[in-house]
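User: If only I could read backbone structure tokens as easily as an amino acid sequence. Those tokens are not coordinates but codes from a learned vocabulary of shapes. Could you go through the record with me and say what the backbone is doing? Here is the record:
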Amino acid sequence: MKLNVTRVLMDAWAIFRRDGDLLVRVASMFMFVPQLALLLIVPPMPPIVLGPDMGEAEQRALAQLLANWIASNGGWYLLATVLVHFGTLVILSLYLRSDRPDAKSAITGALRSFPRFLLAMIIVGLPLGIGLFWVLLLIPALYLVGRLMLTGPLLADRSPDRGIGLRAAIGRSWRMTKGNGLALAALASLTVLGGVLLGAPFVMIDKALRANAPNPLTIALVDIGAAAAVAVSLLAAILIQIATYRRLGGKDGI
């Protein structure tokens, strides 16, 4: 089945228009608040400047500085990542579980199935992480992300006839998205690059404020905007997954 990108986006928007209040509350708890906490609490990573004349002692000092920063702050990033993926599973469960749970039941059910889901999201997210690190690989990475986009929905859909393991979910996502790789890469890029573009102005303003006699209240307001931009892009990505899954035969209806 050929995927119509416009229809997928319209389906995702229809879900938000109908259930926006619930979705905003869940996204605020698991996506906005963790991101805002990172921006307010965790100091920025020290800049990495590698010059041709940098000596071995300077390189060791820089490596030690980065290691110290990771040791002090890596746990916060890990916690925020876990909360984001848990919120993702909760939203997917709200729309894809056959028993149509309410928010409380979706959270309870997500607690039981989260370890497998988290592992799946780490595996599926690896191509994007590599693509963002090596820009030349970004387009192939977005293609892979698109082809594996349905792994999360497949794991969240716990209908009796759809119980599926991690490896099977990845394989089935690949098969379900066959012939739609470019369309799905476009959808993935909309949320990934859209999130970067939405957050970029806030990041630039934040850096400028911190470099010039920072005002804590002003910085907090800017960070709220940055965290909101991240939460919007994450929520959009989840709704696109749901709409795509339904369009490709995973579930019917909006």
